């Protein structure tokens, strides 16, 4: 069983740029490097070329709700892909794609593994998805507690980071493209602009306004991400810049290649996978997530940062423009300290979150799940 070849079908709602999609791309690349077979079913999106370039065949599916007959046709279509690709394990991450893929696999006696990426799933959908799965992976200890509360055990496997994609680079063309001077201190906020993360972004914009008012004219903010709050955040940025009399907030929407934005940053503000990717690029991270404010990620706080998933599943304080401004100011007064945070963070990610180490844990979960169907 240990030496048998895996043929894994990954299921995503879409290939839009986001943490879950980047995680699945990293998994796919690592599995393919191991000599395993990977297939993706998903609606189209910005990251499709990256999956195809990695050697992962993509089958496009629309997961918008349909009637009973339409859903039956979709399941039949999925089952045809499962047969043609000789899939022996389905790996799901989201709803509705996960529910459909898990149901199709269950009817054919094929193993399903569900990775819970957070605590935001509707409880009824999460329970059904875990019931259809032979194994459940949690990306952090708080998520594991969440699955246990719903009645399902899970294995914690941290998000693996592809260090061949996220690594320190000295120069970036982004500053030139955006008209940002080399002397500026650039903050990059990267997140889906929804739920608490959207509120965190609005709070950060107001903190930037305060910092500029008190003389921090060299600060510039780049916001990367999409979501229901994007329009409101663009409007707030325009209002703040009009009041301040200068442009220093760049709201760019969703982007497929995040490395370019991390490389341009002096500070990355974010949570979850963004925090890990940024540290892999040697950048200092101010962790702020769905749950609230965590703070600077430094060697003495690594364990707590990981336990809270960098502010996504636990935090040290509520969102506050004054707290954000104070901590950004503290960092900017000691750029050498920020540089050391970036260097130490890179070493920590290399040690604890390298995709080539984590992928073996994932493969072990796949094989255990397959064993339950035989």
TrEMBL record:
Span of domain Glycosyl transferase family: 175-294
Q: What is this protein called?
A: Glycosyltransferase involved in cell wall biosynthesis
Which intervals hold domain Glycosyltransferase subfamily 4-like N-terminal?
18-164
Query: Keywords in UniProt for this one?
Result: Transferase
Which parts of the chain span the membrane according to its record?
A: none
Q: Which residues form the signal peptide?
A: none
Q: What lineage is this protein's organism placed in?
A: Bacteria, Bacillati, Bacillota, Bacilli, Bacillales
Any one Gene Ontology molecular-function term assigned to this protein's record: glycosyltransferase activity
């Amino acid at each position: 069983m240990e030496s048998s070849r895996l043929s894994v079908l990954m299921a995503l709602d879409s290939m839009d740029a986001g943490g879950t999609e980047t995680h699945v791309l990293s998994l796919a690349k690592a599995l393919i490097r191991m000599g395993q077979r990977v297939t993706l079913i998903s609606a189209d999106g910005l990251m499709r070329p990256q999956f195809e370039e990695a050697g992962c065949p993509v089958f496009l599916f629309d997961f918008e709700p349909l009637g009973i007959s339409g859903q039956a046709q979709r399941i039949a279509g999925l089952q045809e892909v499962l047969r043609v690709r000789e899939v022996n394990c389905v790996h799901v991450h989201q709803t509705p794609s996960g529910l459909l893929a898990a149901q199709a696999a269950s009817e054919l006696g094929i193993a399903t593994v569900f990775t819970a990426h957070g605590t935001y799933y509707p409880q009824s959908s999460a329970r059904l998805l875990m019931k259809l799965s032979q194994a459940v992976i949690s990306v952090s200890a708080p998520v594991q507690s969440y699955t246990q509360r719903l009645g399902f055990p899970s294995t914690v496997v941290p998000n693996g980071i592809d260090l061949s994609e996220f690594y320190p680079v000295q120069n970036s063309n982004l500053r030139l493209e955006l008209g940002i001077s080399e002397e500026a201190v650039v903050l990059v906020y990267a997140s889906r602009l929804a739920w608490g993360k959207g509120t965190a972004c609005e709070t950060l914009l107001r903190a930037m306004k305060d910092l500029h008012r008190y003389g921090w004219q060299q600060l510039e903010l780049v916001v990367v991400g999409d979501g229901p709050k994007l329009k409101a955040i663009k409007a707030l940025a325009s209002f703040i810049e009009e009041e301040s009399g200068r442009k220093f907030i760049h709201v760019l929407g969703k982007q497929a290649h995040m490395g370019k934005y991390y490389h341009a940053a002096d500070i990355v503000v974010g949570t979850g996978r963004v925090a890990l990717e940024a540290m892999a690029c040697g950048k200092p991270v101010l962790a702020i997530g769905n749950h609230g404010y965590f703070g600077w990620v430094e060697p003495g706080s690594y364990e707590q940062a990981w336990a809270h998933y960098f502010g996504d599943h636990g935090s040290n304080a509520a969102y506050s423009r004054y707290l954000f401004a104070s901590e950004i100011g503290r960092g900017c007064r000691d750029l050498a300290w920020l540089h050391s945070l970036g260097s130490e963070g890179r070493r920590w990610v290399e040690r604890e979150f390298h995709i080539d180490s984590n992928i073996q844990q994932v493969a072990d979960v796949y094989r255990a799940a397959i064993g339950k169907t035989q």
